Amino acid sequence: MPPSKPNTARRREVRRNVRRKPANWREAVRQPHVAWAIAFACLITVVGSGLALLGNRTPRYHVGQVLQRAVVPQVDFESIDTRRTDIARQIARDQQPPVFVANLDYANALRASLIDLVQQINESPNEAHTDNAKHRLTPELIASIAERYIDQGQVSESWYQLTRDYTQAIFDRAIVLSVEDYKFYRAEDRRQLIRVHPDPGPGQPRERLQYAGSWLQAPLSGATDGNDWVEALRQNYSSLTLNVPFPPELRELVVSVVMDVNWQPTYVLDAAETRRRADDAAAAVAPTMSAFSAGEVLRPAGTRLALGDVQLLNAAHDAYLDQRPWAQRWLALLGLTGMVGLIAAGLWLYCTQYNKRATHNPWRGFAIASLILLGQGSAVAAALIWPSFLYGAVTFPVVFAAMILAIAYNRRFALAASAVLALLIAVSLDLGTAPVVVMLTAAVATVLQLNQVRSSSKLVLTGIWSGLATAAAAALALLAHRDLFAPGASPVREALRLVQDGPLHTFAAAFATGLLVQGLLPLVARVFNITTAIMLRELNDASHPLLQRLAQSSPGTYQHSLRIADMAEAAADAIGADGLLCRVGAMYHDVGKINKPHYFIENQGGGPNKHEKLSPAMSLLIIVGHVKDGVEMAREFGLPPVLRHFIESHHGTTLVEFFFHAAKKKAEATPDPADTPSEFEFRYPGPKPQTKEAAIMLLCDSLEAAARTLPEPTPVRLEQLVHTIANKRLLDGQFDDCELTLRDLAQIEASITKTLCAVYHARIKYPSDKPLDADTPPTPPAPAAATA
C-alpha cells in the first residue's frame, strides 16, 4: 500500500483549493506580519520624532559661512558678549598673582651642610679641624661644639632644632629671586606675589601675599658685581643668625658653612599652579550679557561668520524656540511627529506589499528599523558636532543604508528605503531642496551599481563612483542656492571654499562608506541572515567537503549537477535573476543522494537496477527521501537557508511518474479497487519553489534528465521537449508560489534549449582503418558546417 500523504501537505492542498473570503481591516490587523509592520512603524515614529526634535535644535550656522540674507530675531533675547567676556576674563587672569614655592632642595642642602659639620666633629675631631680650615674651625670651637651638641656619640636634638630654626628664618626673611624671575616680573610690572612657605611657624599661614618690592632685599638689589652680591648675601645670612639662639662664637662658623653651599633661589615659580589659579579666576568671571530686540538686524547679508557671530545667531534661534507659547510648541511637536509617522507608515506599507520578508520575519523588520534610525541619528549627531560638514553628514547614512539593503534584499527596496531615510533626515534637520536632491542622487548612484556584489572591491568602487556623482550634485546645489563670493573676498579662495563645503565632503563620505561596508559585510550577512555573492563563490568551490563527498560517492549525480548548474545559470541571467545563486543551488540540490547513490540511475553505471526487487511504494520512499536527507545534510554542513530551499523545492510537488505508473500496473492485477494508487500519494512533499531561481532549478532538473532519454536529441526535438515539460510544470501549478511570469518562462525555455543544443550537438564520424563490409555503403563526408 503506498504511503499516505503527510498531513501538512494535505493541509496545503486544501488551502490552495478552498476559496477564501476577503479579510476586513480588523482581521488584517490581527495577522502577525501586519501587526509587526505597525509595531515597527510606531518604533520609527517615536524614536525618529525624538531625533527630529533634537535635530531642530542643531546649530544653524557655522564658522566661515556667508549669510545669504540678513538675520533678524523674532523675539527679544540676551546673549553672551563673547568679546567683552573674553576681555574681562583675561584681566582676571592677568591680575592673579603668581605662586612661588620654596626650593626644598636648597633648604635641605643648607640643613645637611650644618649637620654634616657636627657629625664630622663627632666622628674625627682632628680631621674636622684640618678639612674645615677655611671655616676657621679652631680646637676651641671643636671642643665647644662637642660639649654642647654631641650627646653619647650622636648629634644632639638641639642642633637639629637650631638648623631647622635657621633654615626657617632664611625662608622667612631672606627671600631671593633668580635673575630671570626678577627681570620678568620687573618687565611685567607685577606688584604682588604669593609665597608658599615650606615650614611656617606655629600660627603662621602657609601662603602669604606679598608685594614684589619686599622680595628683594636692599643689599641684594643694590649689588653691582659678583663680589658685592656675595657680600650682601653673607650679611643677610649673618643677620639672620641673631634670630636663632646660636652661641656667639658659632655664628660666624654657621654663616661660613652656609655660604659654602652652592647658592640657589630660595623660591621658584610654580608655573602649573599659577596657570591653574589664573584659569580658575577667569572661569569665576560671570559672562557679560548683551540685550537684543526683536526686529533688530543681528548680522547683514554677505557677512562671513566668525565664532562669535555663530554663537550669537544660534542664541537667537534657541531663544525663539524657548519663548514660544506652550500651545505652539505642542502643535509643532504634533506636526513633527505626524510627518515622521507618515514617512514611517509609507515605508512599512511598501514592505507589506513588495518586501514581505521584512514583515513576516520580526528580526528582519527590527534590523531594517534599526538601520533607518541609526542613519537618522548619525546625520543629526554629525550636523550637531560639525555644522560645516552638513553635506557629508547627510550623504554618509544614505549611502550606507542603500548599500546594506541592496546587498540584503534588492535594489528596488534599497532605493525606496534610502529615499525614506533621506526624507527623515530632511525633516529632522529642517533642510531645503538642495540637500534632499544630493541625498537622492547618492541613493540612486549607489543602488544602480549594486546588482551583484561578487567581490569586496565592488563596494569600494561603488563608494568612489557614488561619491563622484554626489559631489557633482552638491556642486550644482551650492551653485544654485548660495552666493559664491563674500563682498571683497578673493574669487579663488571662495571657489576653493565652495569645493570644500560640498563636493569634497560628499565624496569623502561616500568613499568612507564603501570602505566601512566592505569591512562590515560578514556582520551584515549575519544580522540580516542573507547569503552574499562572496559567500556563494566560496561555496561553489569544488574543494568544499560536501561537494567532494558528492563527487566521490555519487559521480553520476555530481556530473548531473554540473550540467544543471550551467543550464540554470544561463537561464537566470537571461531573465535578470541571480545566476550565481542558481549555479551554487544546482551544485548542492541532490546532495541527499549521497546516502543511497546506487538507487538512482545516473550512479548505476549500467549495472542492475535495485528497484526491480522493490515494490513501487518502497521505491517511492527511497526516491522521495533524498530530499529530506539533503536538507539534513545541508544543516549538518552549515549551508545557508537560501541553498536549503533549492534542495527541498527542486522537485516541488511533482508526481513521481515512473513508480506511479508501476503501482497502477501492479494494482490492475488485483480485483480490489482499494489497492488502486492515488496520484496525490505519489507526489513529492514540496514545498513549491518560492523564488525565480528555485523555479529555474526545478525546470532544469526535469529537462536535463528528460533530454538524456531522447534517442536522437536534435534541436527540434529538444525545443519541443523543453516546451512540453515547461508547460506541464506550469499547468501542474509548480510556479504558483514564485514571481515567475509567462514572459520569463519563454525566455527560460529559449536559454535552456540553447544550452541543451550545445551539449547534444551533432558530431562527425571519423574514418577508421577497419575495412567496410561489402554490403555496407560508404558514409559520405560531412559538410564543413557540421564540424562546428
Structure description:
- The protein is mainly α and 788 residues long.
- 63% of the residues lie in helices and 4% in strands.
- It is elongated.
- The two termini are 53 Å apart.
- The model is unreliable at 1-5, 216-222 and 772-788 (pLDDT under 50).
Care to give the gist of this entry?
This protein is mostly helical. Helices cover 63% and strands 4% of the residues.
The portion of residues forming beta strands comes to: under 5%
Quantity of strands, as a count: 8
Q: For the record, give the distance between the C-alpha atoms at the N and C termini, rounded to a whole number.
A: 53 Å
- Look at the helices and sheets and give the structural class: mainly alpha
**Count the helices. How many?**
33
Residue-averaged pLDDT, rounded? Answer: 80
Structure keywords:
elongated, 8 strands, two-stranded antiparallel ribbon, single chain, 4-stranded mixed sheet, 788 residues, mainly alpha
Note the topology.
Layout: H1 7-17, H2 25-30, H3 32-55, E1 77-80, H4 82-95, E2 99-102, H5 104-123, H6 125-131, H7 139-149, E3 150-151, E4 154-155, H8 157-173, H9 179-187, E5 192-196, E6 207-211, H10 218-222, H11 226-240, H12 248-259, E7 267-269, H13 271-283, E8 289-292, H14 307-323, H15 326-354, H16 356-360, H17 362-385, H18 390-408, H19 411-429, H20 433-449, H21 457-481, H22 491-501, H23 503-527, H24 533-539, H25 545-553, H26 555-574, H27 579-588, H28 616-636, H29 641-649, H30 657-668, H31 692-707, H32 715-731, H33 742-759
Parallel strand pairs: 2-5
Antiparallel strand pairs: 1-8, 2-7, 3-4, 5-6
Helix pairs in contact: 3-15, 3-17, 3-19, 4-13, 5-6, 5-8, 11-12, 15-19, 17-18, 17-19, 18-19, 18-20, 18-21, 18-23, 19-20, 20-21, 21-23, 25-26, 26-27, 26-31, 26-33, 27-29, 27-31, 28-29, 28-30, 31-32, 32-33
